Amino acid sequence: MSLLALGREGRPLAGLDVIDMHGHLGRCGFAIPDLSAEGMVAVMDRVGISQIVCSHMQSMGQETRRGNNEVLAAMRAFPGRLLGYASAWPSDRGAVRAEIERCLAAGFTGLKVHDSNGFAYTYEDYAPAFAIADAHRWPVLLHVWGGDDQLAQVAELAARYPHASFLLAHAGCRNVEGYVRITREHANVYLDLALSSSPRGLVALLVQEAGADKVVWGSDAYFFSQGHQVGKVLGAELSEEVKAQVLSGNAKRLLARVRPHA
Amino acid sequence: MSIELVDAQCGFGGAIPGDPSIVGADQLVADLKRIGLTRALPRLLPEEIEIDAPAANARLYAACADSAGLSPCPIVVPRGGGDLPSEEKQVTALLAHGAASACIRPDRDYWTLAPWNCDALFHALERRRVPVMVSLAKLGIEAVGGLAARYPELPFLMVEASYRQYRSLVPLLAAFPCTYLVLGGGYAVHGGLEHLAATVGAERVVFGTGFPVTEPMTAVTYLMYSGLSGEQKQLVGAGNLDRLMGGIQR
User: Going residue by residue through chain B (250 aa), what tens digit of pLDDT does each one get?
Assistant: First the structure.
Protein backbone atom coordinates (compact mmCIF):
# COMPACT_ATOMS: atom_id res chain seq x y z
CA MET A 1 0.00 0.00 0.00
CA SER A 2 1.41 3.41 -0.91
CA LEU A 3 2.07 6.04 1.72
CA LEU A 4 -0.74 8.15 0.25
CA ALA A 5 -3.12 5.20 0.47
CA LEU A 6 -2.12 4.58 4.08
CA GLY A 7 -2.90 8.19 4.89
CA ARG A 8 -6.19 8.07 3.01
CA GLU A 9 -7.25 5.13 5.15
CA GLY A 10 -5.83 6.55 8.35
CA ARG A 11 -3.47 3.62 8.78
CA PRO A 12 -0.20 4.07 10.68
CA LEU A 13 2.91 4.58 8.59
CA ALA A 14 4.35 1.44 10.08
CA GLY A 15 7.94 0.50 9.49
CA LEU A 16 8.85 3.94 8.21
CA ASP A 17 10.26 5.35 11.49
CA VAL A 18 8.81 8.80 10.88
CA ILE A 19 10.65 11.50 12.81
CA ASP A 20 9.11 14.89 13.51
CA MET A 21 11.87 17.47 13.80
CA HIS A 22 9.66 20.35 14.93
CA GLY A 23 7.47 20.05 17.99
CA HIS A 24 6.46 22.10 21.01
CA LEU A 25 5.19 21.52 24.49
CA GLY A 26 3.63 24.09 26.78
CA ARG A 27 0.98 26.79 26.58
CA CYS A 28 0.73 29.67 24.16
CA GLY A 29 -1.81 32.44 23.62
CA PHE A 30 -4.35 30.70 21.43
CA ALA A 31 -6.26 27.66 22.60
CA ILE A 32 -4.95 24.14 22.12
CA PRO A 33 -7.42 21.72 23.70
CA ASP A 34 -4.88 19.07 24.67
CA LEU A 35 -1.58 20.32 26.10
CA SER A 36 -0.42 16.95 27.39
CA ALA A 37 2.60 15.00 26.25
CA GLU A 38 0.37 11.93 26.43
CA GLY A 39 -1.94 13.44 23.86
CA MET A 40 0.96 14.14 21.55
CA VAL A 41 2.23 10.58 21.82
CA ALA A 42 -1.27 9.26 21.14
CA VAL A 43 -1.34 11.14 17.85
CA MET A 44 2.15 9.88 17.07
CA ASP A 45 0.97 6.32 17.61
CA ARG A 46 -2.01 6.78 15.28
CA VAL A 47 0.10 8.29 12.53
CA GLY A 48 3.10 6.02 13.03
CA ILE A 49 5.60 8.65 14.16
CA SER A 50 8.50 7.18 16.09
CA GLN A 51 10.02 10.32 17.53
CA ILE A 52 9.48 14.03 17.86
CA VAL A 53 12.03 16.64 18.88
CA CYS A 54 10.31 19.28 21.00
CA SER A 55 11.17 22.66 22.34
CA HIS A 56 8.97 24.47 24.85
CA MET A 57 6.70 27.33 23.88
CA GLN A 58 8.86 29.42 26.22
CA SER A 59 11.55 29.36 23.55
CA MET A 60 9.51 32.36 22.42
CA GLY A 61 9.57 33.88 25.90
CA GLN A 62 11.77 34.40 28.90
CA GLU A 63 10.94 31.36 31.08
CA THR A 64 13.24 29.08 29.16
CA ARG A 65 14.51 27.25 32.25
CA ARG A 66 10.96 26.31 33.28
CA GLY A 67 10.25 25.34 29.71
CA ASN A 68 13.33 23.17 29.46
CA ASN A 69 12.34 21.47 32.72
CA GLU A 70 8.90 20.64 31.35
CA VAL A 71 10.41 19.26 28.17
CA LEU A 72 12.80 17.18 30.27
CA ALA A 73 9.91 15.77 32.25
CA ALA A 74 8.25 14.72 29.00
CA MET A 75 11.51 13.21 27.74
CA ARG A 76 11.69 11.10 30.88
CA ALA A 77 8.03 10.14 30.67
CA PHE A 78 8.40 9.01 27.06
CA PRO A 79 12.05 8.01 26.65
CA GLY A 80 13.10 7.64 23.07
CA ARG A 81 9.79 9.06 21.76
CA LEU A 82 10.03 12.68 22.90
CA LEU A 83 13.44 14.26 22.39
CA GLY A 84 14.34 17.79 23.46
CA TYR A 85 15.49 21.04 21.93
CA ALA A 86 16.98 23.27 24.61
CA SER A 87 16.39 27.01 24.69
CA ALA A 88 17.93 29.85 26.64
CA TRP A 89 16.97 33.44 27.41
CA PRO A 90 20.06 35.47 26.51
CA SER A 91 20.42 37.49 29.70
CA ASP A 92 24.19 37.03 29.52
CA ARG A 93 26.70 34.58 28.10
CA GLY A 94 27.31 32.85 31.39
CA ALA A 95 23.64 32.16 31.96
CA VAL A 96 23.20 30.86 28.42
CA ARG A 97 26.21 28.57 28.73
CA ALA A 98 25.05 27.23 32.09
CA GLU A 99 21.52 26.51 30.89
CA ILE A 100 22.50 24.82 27.66
CA GLU A 101 25.19 22.77 29.40
CA ARG A 102 22.55 21.72 31.93
CA CYS A 103 20.30 20.58 29.13
CA LEU A 104 23.14 18.82 27.36
CA ALA A 105 23.94 16.87 30.52
CA ALA A 106 20.25 16.00 30.89
CA GLY A 107 20.12 14.45 27.43
CA PHE A 108 18.70 17.15 25.18
CA THR A 109 19.34 16.56 21.52
CA GLY A 110 19.35 20.02 19.96
CA LEU A 111 18.89 23.76 20.25
CA LYS A 112 15.82 25.88 19.47
CA VAL A 113 16.05 29.63 18.96
CA HIS A 114 13.04 31.81 18.14
CA ASP A 115 13.45 35.47 17.35
CA SER A 116 9.98 36.47 18.51
CA ASN A 117 11.71 37.12 21.83
CA GLY A 118 13.24 40.18 20.20
CA PHE A 119 16.80 38.94 19.87
CA ALA A 120 18.51 38.30 16.54
CA TYR A 121 19.94 34.85 16.07
CA THR A 122 23.36 36.46 15.89
CA TYR A 123 22.89 38.21 19.24
CA GLU A 124 26.28 37.88 20.89
CA ASP A 125 25.10 36.28 24.14
CA TYR A 126 23.73 33.30 22.18
CA ALA A 127 27.29 32.37 21.19
CA PRO A 128 27.85 29.76 23.94
CA ALA A 129 24.68 27.97 22.90
CA PHE A 130 25.79 27.72 19.29
CA ALA A 131 29.29 26.67 20.37
CA ILE A 132 27.81 23.77 22.32
CA ALA A 133 25.55 22.89 19.39
CA ASP A 134 28.58 22.90 17.13
CA ALA A 135 30.68 20.75 19.45
CA HIS A 136 27.91 18.17 19.83
CA ARG A 137 26.71 18.18 16.21
CA TRP A 138 23.27 19.25 17.36
CA PRO A 139 20.39 20.12 15.07
CA VAL A 140 19.57 23.79 15.60
CA LEU A 141 15.97 24.67 14.78
CA LEU A 142 15.48 28.33 13.90
CA HIS A 143 12.12 29.98 13.40
CA VAL A 144 12.45 31.70 10.06
CA TRP A 145 9.75 33.52 8.12
CA GLY A 146 11.61 34.05 4.88
CA GLY A 147 13.05 37.46 5.67
CA ASP A 148 16.34 38.28 3.99
CA ASP A 149 17.70 39.60 7.27
CA GLN A 150 16.92 36.33 9.04
CA LEU A 151 18.42 34.28 6.22
CA ALA A 152 21.57 36.41 6.32
CA GLN A 153 21.88 35.65 10.03
CA VAL A 154 21.51 31.96 9.31
CA ALA A 155 24.24 32.12 6.69
CA GLU A 156 26.56 33.76 9.18
CA LEU A 157 25.83 31.15 11.84
CA ALA A 158 26.08 28.20 9.45
CA ALA A 159 29.55 29.34 8.40
CA ARG A 160 30.71 30.01 11.95
CA TYR A 161 29.38 26.72 13.34
CA PRO A 162 29.92 24.20 10.53
CA HIS A 163 29.30 21.10 12.64
CA ALA A 164 25.83 22.09 13.78
CA SER A 165 22.88 21.31 11.49
CA PHE A 166 20.67 24.36 11.00
CA LEU A 167 17.02 23.63 10.29
CA LEU A 168 15.07 26.52 8.82
CA ALA A 169 11.49 26.30 9.99
CA HIS A 170 8.46 27.06 7.83
CA ALA A 171 10.43 26.67 4.62
CA GLY A 172 8.75 28.33 1.67
CA CYS A 173 6.24 30.36 3.68
CA ARG A 174 7.48 33.14 1.43
CA ASN A 175 10.76 33.87 -0.38
CA VAL A 176 11.21 30.31 -1.59
CA GLU A 177 14.28 31.40 -3.54
CA GLY A 178 15.93 32.69 -0.37
CA TYR A 179 15.36 29.48 1.53
CA VAL A 180 16.64 27.39 -1.39
CA ARG A 181 19.67 29.58 -2.02
CA ILE A 182 20.92 29.40 1.53
CA THR A 183 20.37 25.65 1.63
CA ARG A 184 22.40 25.18 -1.53
CA GLU A 185 25.18 27.46 -0.29
CA HIS A 186 25.63 25.76 3.07
CA ALA A 187 26.03 22.02 3.52
CA ASN A 188 24.79 22.25 7.11
CA VAL A 189 21.51 24.04 6.40
CA TYR A 190 18.25 22.14 5.94
CA LEU A 191 14.62 23.00 5.29
CA ASP A 192 11.86 22.17 7.79
CA LEU A 193 8.37 21.78 6.35
CA ALA A 194 6.20 22.88 9.27
CA LEU A 195 3.65 25.35 7.87
CA SER A 196 -0.07 25.44 8.58
CA SER A 197 -1.02 26.75 5.14
CA SER A 198 0.71 23.82 3.42
CA PRO A 199 0.63 25.28 -0.10
CA ARG A 200 -0.14 22.80 -2.83
CA GLY A 201 3.02 21.76 -4.61
CA LEU A 202 5.43 23.39 -2.16
CA VAL A 203 6.95 20.18 -0.77
CA ALA A 204 7.77 18.87 -4.23
CA LEU A 205 9.18 22.25 -5.24
CA LEU A 206 11.46 22.45 -2.21
CA VAL A 207 12.70 18.90 -2.80
CA GLN A 208 13.33 19.65 -6.45
CA GLU A 209 15.17 22.91 -5.77
CA ALA A 210 17.03 22.18 -2.55
CA GLY A 211 17.54 18.46 -2.92
CA ALA A 212 15.75 15.53 -1.35
CA ASP A 213 18.50 15.15 1.22
CA LYS A 214 18.03 18.69 2.52
CA VAL A 215 14.34 18.62 3.43
CA VAL A 216 13.08 17.31 6.78
CA TRP A 217 9.53 16.90 7.98
CA GLY A 218 8.37 18.87 10.98
CA SER A 219 4.81 19.44 12.12
CA ASP A 220 5.00 22.39 14.50
CA ALA A 221 2.94 20.24 16.88
CA TYR A 222 1.11 21.04 18.86
CA PHE A 223 0.41 24.38 17.28
CA PHE A 224 -0.80 22.08 14.52
CA SER A 225 -1.93 18.51 14.41
CA GLN A 226 0.72 16.07 13.22
CA GLY A 227 -2.07 14.23 11.47
CA HIS A 228 -2.65 17.37 9.39
CA GLN A 229 0.96 18.18 8.62
CA VAL A 230 2.01 14.69 7.55
CA GLY A 231 -0.50 14.90 4.73
CA LYS A 232 1.56 17.41 2.80
CA VAL A 233 4.31 14.82 2.31
CA LEU A 234 1.98 11.88 1.72
CA GLY A 235 0.14 13.89 -0.92
CA ALA A 236 3.19 15.40 -2.60
CA GLU A 237 4.12 14.43 -6.16
CA LEU A 238 7.21 12.55 -5.01
CA SER A 239 8.40 8.98 -5.18
CA GLU A 240 7.86 6.71 -2.21
CA GLU A 241 11.60 6.70 -1.61
CA VAL A 242 11.82 10.46 -1.44
CA LYS A 243 8.78 10.67 0.84
CA ALA A 244 10.49 8.20 3.16
CA GLN A 245 13.68 10.24 3.02
CA VAL A 246 11.84 13.43 3.95
CA LEU A 247 9.76 11.81 6.68
CA SER A 248 12.53 9.74 8.17
CA GLY A 249 15.89 9.22 6.50
CA ASN A 250 17.18 12.78 6.63
CA ALA A 251 16.21 13.26 10.27
CA LYS A 252 17.76 9.93 11.21
CA ARG A 253 21.00 11.02 9.62
CA LEU A 254 20.98 14.33 11.50
CA LEU A 255 20.20 12.75 14.84
CA ALA A 256 22.80 10.02 14.34
CA ARG A 257 25.50 12.72 14.15
CA VAL A 258 24.72 14.02 17.62
CA ARG A 259 27.52 13.59 20.13
CA PRO A 260 25.95 13.09 23.55
CA HIS A 261 27.30 14.59 26.71
CA ALA A 262 30.46 12.76 27.75
CA MET B 1 -12.78 1.20 6.89
CA SER B 2 -13.24 3.30 3.76
CA ILE B 3 -14.64 6.72 4.58
CA GLU B 4 -16.30 8.75 1.85
CA LEU B 5 -15.06 12.32 1.75
CA VAL B 6 -16.86 15.20 0.01
CA ASP B 7 -14.90 18.42 -0.40
CA ALA B 8 -16.87 21.47 0.77
CA GLN B 9 -13.93 23.84 0.66
CA CYS B 10 -12.39 23.90 -2.75
CA GLY B 11 -12.43 25.80 -6.01
CA PHE B 12 -10.99 26.47 -9.42
CA GLY B 13 -11.07 28.96 -12.24
CA GLY B 14 -9.88 32.09 -10.47
CA ALA B 15 -6.63 33.92 -11.08
CA ILE B 16 -3.93 34.98 -8.65
CA PRO B 17 -2.70 38.51 -9.42
CA GLY B 18 0.68 38.25 -11.14
CA ASP B 19 0.35 34.55 -11.87
CA PRO B 20 -0.62 33.60 -15.44
CA SER B 21 -1.65 30.04 -14.54
CA ILE B 22 -5.27 29.21 -13.72
CA VAL B 23 -6.36 25.96 -12.12
CA GLY B 24 -9.23 24.39 -14.03
CA ALA B 25 -12.05 22.10 -13.00
CA ASP B 26 -10.22 19.19 -14.61
CA GLN B 27 -7.29 19.71 -12.22
CA LEU B 28 -9.64 19.77 -9.24
CA VAL B 29 -11.29 16.54 -10.38
CA ALA B 30 -7.93 14.89 -11.03
CA ASP B 31 -6.43 15.94 -7.71
CA LEU B 32 -9.49 14.84 -5.77
CA LYS B 33 -9.52 11.53 -7.61
CA ARG B 34 -5.86 11.03 -6.73
CA ILE B 35 -6.73 11.20 -3.03
CA GLY B 36 -9.91 9.18 -3.35
CA LEU B 37 -12.62 11.82 -3.52
CA THR B 38 -15.37 11.94 -6.15
CA ARG B 39 -17.65 14.76 -5.00
CA ALA B 40 -17.08 18.42 -4.24
CA LEU B 41 -18.81 21.78 -3.89
CA PRO B 42 -16.40 24.12 -5.66
CA ARG B 43 -16.47 27.91 -5.71
CA LEU B 44 -14.64 30.24 -8.10
CA LEU B 45 -11.23 30.45 -6.45
CA PRO B 46 -8.99 32.35 -5.98
CA GLU B 47 -11.39 35.28 -5.98
CA GLU B 48 -9.09 38.30 -5.67
CA ILE B 49 -9.75 39.62 -9.19
CA GLU B 50 -13.16 38.08 -9.83
CA ILE B 51 -15.03 41.36 -10.05
CA ASP B 52 -18.09 40.16 -11.94
CA ALA B 53 -20.11 37.77 -9.79
CA PRO B 54 -22.74 36.79 -12.41
CA ALA B 55 -20.03 36.07 -14.98
CA ALA B 56 -18.05 34.07 -12.43
CA ASN B 57 -21.17 32.06 -11.64
CA ALA B 58 -21.76 31.38 -15.34
CA ARG B 59 -18.23 30.01 -15.72
CA LEU B 60 -18.66 27.93 -12.60
CA TYR B 61 -21.97 26.46 -13.78
CA ALA B 62 -20.54 25.60 -17.21
CA ALA B 63 -17.46 23.89 -15.78
CA CYS B 64 -19.44 21.92 -13.22
CA ALA B 65 -21.96 20.83 -15.83
CA ASP B 66 -19.10 19.06 -17.62
CA SER B 67 -17.79 17.33 -14.49
CA ALA B 68 -19.83 14.72 -12.73
CA GLY B 69 -19.55 14.98 -8.98
CA LEU B 70 -19.08 18.77 -8.89
CA SER B 71 -21.93 20.76 -7.36
CA PRO B 72 -21.33 24.48 -7.96
CA CYS B 73 -21.28 26.94 -5.08
CA PRO B 74 -22.12 30.28 -6.75
CA ILE B 75 -21.85 33.77 -5.37
CA VAL B 76 -25.02 35.48 -4.17
CA VAL B 77 -25.30 39.24 -3.77
CA PRO B 78 -27.98 41.54 -2.28
CA ARG B 79 -29.82 43.26 -5.07
CA GLY B 80 -29.62 46.82 -3.69
CA GLY B 81 -28.21 48.93 -6.51
CA GLY B 82 -30.51 47.54 -9.19
CA ASP B 83 -27.89 45.74 -11.27
CA LEU B 84 -28.77 42.17 -10.31
CA PRO B 85 -31.80 39.87 -10.30
CA SER B 86 -33.84 39.76 -7.12
CA GLU B 87 -32.53 37.65 -4.30
CA GLU B 88 -35.38 35.18 -4.80
CA LYS B 89 -34.49 34.81 -8.48
CA GLN B 90 -30.80 34.31 -7.62
CA VAL B 91 -31.65 31.46 -5.26
CA THR B 92 -34.05 29.88 -7.75
CA ALA B 93 -31.38 30.09 -10.45
CA LEU B 94 -28.65 28.50 -8.38
CA LEU B 95 -30.90 25.58 -7.49
CA ALA B 96 -31.82 25.18 -11.15
CA HIS B 97 -28.11 24.84 -11.95
CA GLY B 98 -27.71 22.01 -9.50
CA ALA B 99 -26.10 24.02 -6.71
CA ALA B 100 -26.47 22.81 -3.16
CA SER B 101 -24.85 25.82 -1.50
CA ALA B 102 -24.03 29.45 -2.09
CA CYS B 103 -21.25 31.76 -0.96
CA ILE B 104 -21.05 35.43 -0.08
CA ARG B 105 -18.24 37.94 -0.57
CA PRO B 106 -19.36 41.23 1.02
CA ASP B 107 -15.97 42.90 0.63
CA ARG B 108 -15.53 41.99 -3.01
CA ASP B 109 -19.14 42.76 -4.01
CA TYR B 110 -19.33 45.90 -1.90
CA TRP B 111 -22.18 45.35 0.51
CA THR B 112 -22.60 45.32 4.25
CA LEU B 113 -23.98 42.77 6.65
CA ALA B 114 -26.50 45.25 8.02
CA PRO B 115 -30.01 43.74 8.05
CA TRP B 116 -31.41 46.56 5.91
CA ASN B 117 -28.80 45.64 3.27
CA CYS B 118 -28.98 41.86 3.19
CA ASP B 119 -32.13 40.63 4.98
CA ALA B 120 -33.82 39.84 1.67
CA LEU B 121 -30.86 37.74 0.53
CA PHE B 122 -30.51 35.69 3.68
CA HIS B 123 -34.27 35.22 4.06
CA ALA B 124 -34.43 33.94 0.48
CA LEU B 125 -31.68 31.43 1.25
CA GLU B 126 -33.21 30.56 4.60
CA ARG B 127 -36.62 29.82 3.10
CA ARG B 128 -35.05 27.22 0.81
CA ARG B 129 -32.53 26.06 3.45
CA VAL B 130 -29.63 26.59 1.07
CA PRO B 131 -26.36 26.30 3.05
CA VAL B 132 -24.24 29.44 2.81
CA MET B 133 -20.45 29.42 2.85
CA VAL B 134 -19.01 32.26 4.89
CA SER B 135 -15.32 32.98 5.30
CA LEU B 136 -14.11 33.30 8.86
CA ALA B 137 -10.95 34.89 7.53
CA LYS B 138 -12.75 37.64 5.64
CA LEU B 139 -15.85 38.25 7.76
CA GLY B 140 -14.46 37.46 11.21
CA ILE B 141 -16.00 35.37 13.93
CA GLU B 142 -18.15 38.13 15.41
CA ALA B 143 -19.77 38.94 12.09
CA VAL B 144 -20.51 35.29 11.42
CA GLY B 145 -22.01 35.00 14.87
CA GLY B 146 -24.19 37.99 14.12
CA LEU B 147 -25.49 36.39 10.95
CA ALA B 148 -26.17 33.09 12.68
CA ALA B 149 -28.14 34.90 15.39
CA ARG B 150 -30.28 36.72 12.81
CA TYR B 151 -30.93 33.71 10.55
CA PRO B 152 -31.08 30.66 12.84
CA GLU B 153 -32.70 28.37 10.25
CA LEU B 154 -30.00 28.97 7.67
CA PRO B 155 -27.01 26.56 7.68
CA PHE B 156 -23.76 28.53 7.70
CA LEU B 157 -20.73 26.60 6.45
CA MET B 158 -17.72 28.39 7.91
CA VAL B 159 -14.71 28.15 5.63
CA GLU B 160 -11.17 29.57 5.87
CA ALA B 161 -10.96 29.02 9.61
CA SER B 162 -7.65 29.54 11.37
CA TYR B 163 -6.23 27.40 14.15
CA ARG B 164 -5.74 30.68 16.05
CA GLN B 165 -9.52 31.22 16.23
CA TYR B 166 -10.24 28.12 18.24
CA ARG B 167 -10.90 29.90 21.55
CA SER B 168 -13.79 31.75 19.92
CA LEU B 169 -14.78 29.12 17.41
CA VAL B 170 -15.96 26.59 19.97
CA PRO B 171 -18.31 29.02 21.78
CA LEU B 172 -19.61 30.19 18.40
CA LEU B 173 -20.47 26.64 17.40
CA ALA B 174 -22.03 26.05 20.81
CA ALA B 175 -24.09 29.22 20.69
CA PHE B 176 -25.41 28.85 17.15
CA PRO B 177 -26.58 25.38 16.08
CA CYS B 178 -26.88 26.58 12.48
CA THR B 179 -23.11 26.96 12.15
CA TYR B 180 -20.78 24.28 10.82
CA LEU B 181 -16.99 24.25 10.69
CA VAL B 182 -15.54 23.29 7.34
CA LEU B 183 -12.11 21.70 7.49
CA GLY B 184 -9.38 22.57 5.05
CA GLY B 185 -6.77 25.17 4.42
CA GLY B 186 -4.60 25.93 7.43
CA TYR B 187 -7.13 24.70 9.99
CA ALA B 188 -5.07 22.18 11.91
CA VAL B 189 -5.92 22.42 15.61
CA HIS B 190 -4.14 19.69 17.58
CA GLY B 191 -6.85 17.68 19.30
CA GLY B 192 -9.41 20.01 17.75
CA LEU B 193 -11.58 17.39 16.08
CA GLU B 194 -11.80 15.26 19.17
CA HIS B 195 -12.61 18.27 21.35
CA LEU B 196 -15.25 19.52 18.94
CA ALA B 197 -16.86 16.10 18.80
CA ALA B 198 -16.98 16.00 22.59
CA THR B 199 -18.33 19.54 23.02
CA VAL B 200 -20.58 20.42 20.08
CA GLY B 201 -20.77 17.09 18.29
CA ALA B 202 -19.16 15.63 15.20
CA GLU B 203 -22.41 16.55 13.41
CA ARG B 204 -21.15 20.13 13.25
CA VAL B 205 -17.97 19.52 11.26
CA VAL B 206 -17.83 19.21 7.48
CA PHE B 207 -14.93 18.00 5.42
CA GLY B 208 -13.04 20.29 3.04
CA THR B 209 -9.52 20.54 1.67
CA GLY B 210 -8.68 24.11 0.69
CA PHE B 211 -7.80 23.19 -2.93
CA PRO B 212 -6.34 24.87 -5.01
CA VAL B 213 -4.29 26.76 -2.45
CA THR B 214 -3.65 24.01 0.10
CA GLU B 215 -2.30 20.50 -0.40
CA PRO B 216 -5.62 18.63 -0.13
CA MET B 217 -4.13 15.56 1.52
CA THR B 218 -3.49 17.54 4.74
CA ALA B 219 -7.21 17.69 5.47
CA VAL B 220 -7.59 14.01 4.63
CA THR B 221 -4.93 12.91 7.08
CA TYR B 222 -6.14 15.42 9.67
CA LEU B 223 -9.49 13.64 9.75
CA MET B 224 -8.34 10.09 9.14
CA TYR B 225 -5.59 10.13 11.78
CA SER B 226 -7.85 11.83 14.35
CA GLY B 227 -9.22 10.06 17.37
CA LEU B 228 -12.78 10.20 16.05
CA SER B 229 -14.66 6.94 15.71
CA GLY B 230 -15.38 5.48 12.30
CA GLU B 231 -18.97 6.66 12.52
CA GLN B 232 -17.89 10.18 13.42
CA LYS B 233 -15.41 10.22 10.53
CA GLN B 234 -18.26 9.15 8.20
CA LEU B 235 -20.37 12.05 9.46
CA VAL B 236 -17.60 14.59 9.00
CA GLY B 237 -16.44 13.10 5.72
CA ALA B 238 -19.79 13.19 3.95
CA GLY B 239 -22.76 12.51 6.18
CA ASN B 240 -23.17 15.98 7.65
CA LEU B 241 -22.96 17.71 4.28
CA ASP B 242 -25.31 15.20 2.68
CA ARG B 243 -27.79 15.83 5.47
CA LEU B 244 -27.62 19.59 4.92
CA MET B 245 -27.95 19.24 1.15
CA GLY B 246 -30.86 16.88 1.66
CA GLY B 247 -32.63 19.59 3.65
CA ILE B 248 -32.75 22.02 0.73
CA GLN B 249 -36.30 22.97 -0.27
CA ARG B 250 -36.04 22.59 -4.02
Answer: 689 999 999 999 999 999 999 999 999 999 999 999 999 999 999 999 999 999 999 999 999 999 989 999 999 999 999 999 999 999 999 999 999 999 999 999 999 999 999 999 999 999 999 999 999 999 999 999 999 999 999 999 999 999 999 999 999 999 999 999 999 998 999 999 999 999 999 999 999 999 999 999 999 999 999 999 999 999 999 999 999 999 999 9
Question: Which candidate, A190, A236, A240, places its Cα nearest to that of A210?
Answer: A190
User: Among partner residues B188, B212, B223, which is closest to A200 by beta-carbon distance?
Assistant: B212
Considering only CB atoms, which chain B residues are within 8 Å of A40?
190
Residues of A in contact with B234 (CB under 8 A): none
Q: Please give the model's pTM, rounded to 2 decimal places.
A: 0.97
Residues of B in Cβ contact (< 8 Å) with A43: 190-191, 225, 227
Which of A9, A34, A221 is nearest residue B224 as measured by Cβ atoms?
A9
Q: CA A236 to CA A204: how far, in whole Å?
A: 6
Q: What is the ipTM of this complex?
A: 0.97
Residue A13 in contact with residue A209, Cβ under 8 Å? no
A window 233-262, beta carbon within 8 A of B: 234-236
Beta strands in A181-254 (DSSP E): 189-192, 215-216
